[in-house]
Amino acid sequence: MSGPPFQLSPDPTFYFESRGHQRALAYLQYGIVQGEGFIVVSGEIGTGKTTLVKKLLSALDETRVVAGEVLNTQLNCGELLQAVGMAFGVPLAGQSKAQMLGSLEAHFLGVAASGRRALLVVDEAQNLDNEALEELRMLSNFQLGPQALLQSFLVGQPGLRQKLASPSLEQLRQRIMAACHLEPLAAEETQGYLSSRLSRVGWSGRPRFDDEAVNLIHNRCDGVPRRINRLCTRLLLAACLDGRDDIDADFVARTADELTQEVGTFAMA
Questions:
Q1: Does residue 236 form part of some domain?
Q2: Which domain holds residue 89?
Q3: By the 8 A CB rule, do 68 and 118 touch?
Q4: Please, are residues 184 and 47 in contact by the beta-carbon 8 Å criterion?
């Protein structure tokens, strides 16, 4: 194999279009076309939210859309504005809140004047407090005539949906164009997920995962892609050390149990 097929870090090269991911990607693409408001994508840890967004961003036409990402969201209101400035290359150090808002608006006006649109992607958005989320709504007020200057994607864990239900965020909710929740892989999708990732690194068919092994991998990992990646990385290593050409259910069970003992947080069905 030319590389690790089950790396934990998000990589759009390994994007697997499950039914849930297909639906979520359609929502994101719809949002891009609309060019305004908020699109919300939620899901449990490890379900592939960040990979999905990276897939979308990698396909954007940079002559039409300028994207900025905020990845660290343990921020207060002022720090969030600074982070938005950094995401778009706008220096805001030492400025008051009013000055920061003015600088950002001027930048987004410049983007619009060049015939492009600004897209802000906020990952781990469940960490933002209500005041910071309200600040994002205020940024969405920037307009050039009827055209919104900034569109935002909020990506986060299920707590994001609960936070957005707060009565104090009613105005933000009214600007949500679409929202979707990423579910884990269905049992019948796990084989396709494994084959897809393995094929991208030139897998020759060995070691082979038998059907019962795939079913157990799915069950032990609850269909969560990141958990599957972690277990399969260990399975490939153990199979190599043992000189195994086949991975069966017993081998999966033993390896998963070993990983559980070592890590202590590995979810078991």
A1: yes
A2: 19-182
A3: yes
A4: yes
pLDDT class of 148 with cuts at 50, 70, 90: very high
Residues 172 and 193 in one domain: no
Q: Looking at the domain assignment, is residue 269 inside a domain?
A: no
- Say if residue 140 is in the same domain as residue 235: no
- Residue 66 parent element (H or E): strand 65-70
Q: What percent of the chain has pLDDT over 70?
A: 97
231 near 259, Cβ under 8 Å? yes
CB-based contact 103:21 (threshold 8 Å)? no
Q: What is this structure's pTM?
A: 0.86
Q: Tell which of 149, 166, 182 closes a domain.
A: 182
Average pLDDT over residues 168-172: 95
pLDDT at 260: 86
CA atoms within 13 A on the CB side of 11: 12
* Comparison of pLDDT for 10 and 108, the residue scoring more: 108
- pLDDT tens for each residue of 9-36: 888 888 999 999 998 888 888 888 888 8
Task: Indicate the pLDDT class of residue 165, thresholds 50, 70 and 90.
Answer: very high
Q: What is the CATH number of the domain that holds 246?
A: 1.10.8.60
Q: SS3 for 91-141, per residue?
A: CCCCCCHHHHHHHHHHHHHHHHHCCCEEEEEECCHHHCCHHHHHHHHHHCC
Count the domains in the chain.
Answer: 2
Peptide bond into 12 cis (omega under 30): no
CATH number of the CATH domain containing 130: 3.40.50.300
Give pLDDT, residue 1. 62
CB 140 within 8 A of CB 38: yes
What distances in angstroms separate CA 21 from CA 89, 146, 232, 248, one per listed residue? Answer: 30, 32, 21, 28
